[in-house]
Amino acid sequence: MSIPPHSRRKSKYTPRSRASGADAVRTSAMIASLDAEGRETITAPFGHALVDLAKTRADIIGLSADLSKYTDLHIFAQAYPERFYQMGMAEGLLMSAAAGLAREGFTPFATTYAVFAARRAYDFIAMAIAEENLPVKIVCALPGLTTGYGPSHQATEDMAIMRAMPNMVVIDPCDAVDVAQATRAIADYNGPTYMRLLRGQVANVLGAYDYGFELGRAKMLREGADVLIISSGIMTMRALDAAQVLEQDGIGVAVLHSPTIKPLDQDTILAEAQKNGRLVVVAENHSITGGLGDAVAKTLMTHDVFVPLRQIGLPDEFLDAGALPSLHDQYGITVERIAEQLRRWVDQ
Amino acid sequence: MSLAQRAWAIRRNALLMGEVQGQGYIGQALGVADVLAVSYFHAMRLRADEPEWERRDRFYLSIGHYAIALYAALIEVGILPEDEIATYGMDDSRLPMSGMAAYTPGMEITGGSLGHGLGIAVGAALGLKRKNNPAFVYNLLSDGELGEGSTWEAVMSATQWKLDNLIAIVDFNNQQADGPSRAALAQGAEVPKWEAFGWFAQEVDGNDLTAVVAAFDAAKTHPNPCPRVIICNTKMCHGISFLETREKTHFIRVEADEWAKALAEHEEKKPL
């Protein structure tokens, strides 16, 4: 048997010509503020929502594995130092200890980066938390492609991993409004949850809509006759912007925001997908494998709803490092690239 | 009843369950019976008629495959009825082969995936302190489990948080699935290792009831604000001579006719 020579991954990617020198877009390390892009922002919506909750609920406590400052949990830690546990750089322990505290009647919010929870701590989350259906709230920063730091910190498959875990509720909020409302909703839910976190200065997008986060519910944010985008996370704000761009071209784009990935709001998705003969597009800040796209596809297929379905998401690859705006462009998840793609699909 | 009588009864219950299935981790159960007798009939505060009594001492079994041993103890305590022995490992039984919290009264956590118990115990010990609840958390680990990195995350954390309400018990029988634990990662110097991590550490003959009692007493009353560990050197299959001398394996093979033989030998050794 011959063994093929080892080949490094890479690279289908050919660098485009980019500005250099003073105009170069710099690599964002652990970005503090994603996608504000001139919008109104709200500071640390998760940290402040948790502090508000803690005022009336003595069972709320916080734990982090050396990433409180990078998950906005430091806001809570400053307000309630006696209710914050610094567990050190030990994610297995973080999840196990959260399970132990939940056993004793507390509602622990455990924070780290999405890659470390989903990859490193999986067995601990599965057996110490989910198997016993304990109310541990896992809240994780750097979801999908929200850092240019490279695959070690890019959680492109976290929702696929967490979706597969029995009992686990999976949430991918869009903006500061979503993050704050979802924080309250998961605190009230008596079971394990995994929430992707947007931290720092977080855009306020949904504040302009008649919207409220409800666990397990998808909400129509915008109507449109030609395309239905079903989206979660930051891709919802991108989808809303792309819809505005296409409106000028006479293409009507509806946006259904589905921040709860599991349990999926099948009823709303099935109802909307069957209206008007629209092209259905799922958009997510996640690998095209195992996330919202797969969940929607399965829902449609198993309910005999056969409509044209397309996916906008990250490729099933370990992604490149670089500046975040460049990477979003490269992988097709900027407003402009989404609008281009939708236009092509509609024209076909 | 004496602790020797309790330990004898725990071994009998375990042998009866092994006979039901014709298999099981009986070697471990026979080895750890003395430690369980001291835990449940000397050291721990509990109420047999109220297994979830808020002020009970918690007993976390990391090592799910030791479930047969813990069931044997819980039956002797009276938390589980003796007539459920016949259901061990059967469909719809409350006594599955691996210990799981949802199935069995008195089984506090779901074990089986090793390296979880001590971390959960750290969280519970923190929670008890938050509630000013004076209960202890005991965690029974195995020597093989010391190879799991997460165990040592918890070891460091327990010291960090000064968890003097946490008592780890290591059943050191030097047998893991592929052979001697000493030939894997548990290579010795257990007490200095735990001491270096800031624990009050003791090492005892885990089949010497007097020594085990003294170690538990010392662990509970040690004055320093640090977690406690008792390394219990135990002998697989302790008390059943023909099994003790059998080639050492993690999963002892017992032939169908040998259960009766083992129970007969055990009956002869019943303490007065």
Molecular structure report:
Chain A has two domains: 41-203, 3-Layer(aba) Sandwich (Rossmann fold); 216-347, 3-Layer(aba) Sandwich (Rossmann fold), CATH 3.40.50.920. Chain A is built from twelve helices and 14 strands. Chain A has helices at 45-56, 73-79, 91-103, 114-120, 122-130, 158-163, 176-188, 234-247, 266-273, 292-302, 324-330, 335-347; strands spanning 41-43, 60-64, 84-86, 107-113, 137-141, 169-171, 193-196, 201-203, 219-222, 227-231, 253-257, 260-262, 279-287, 309-314. In chain A, the strands form three sheets. Chain A has a seven-stranded mixed sheet, with helices on both faces. Chain A is globular, with a radius of gyration of 20 Å. Chain B has one domain (3-268): Thiamin diphosphate (ThDP)-binding fold, Pyr/PP domains (Rossmann fold, 3-Layer(aba) Sandwich). Chain B has helices spanning 3-21, 26-43, 67-77, 117-130, 149-160, 190-196, 209-221, 241-244, 258-268; strands spanning 58-61, 137-142, 166-172, 200-205, 228-233. A five-stranded parallel sheet of chain B has the order 1-2-3-5-4, with helices on both faces. In chain B, helix 1 packs across helix 3 (67-77) and helix 2 packs across helix 7. The chains are: A alpha/beta (348), B alpha/beta (272). Chains A and B meet through helix 3 and helix 5 of A and helix 4 and helix 5 of B.
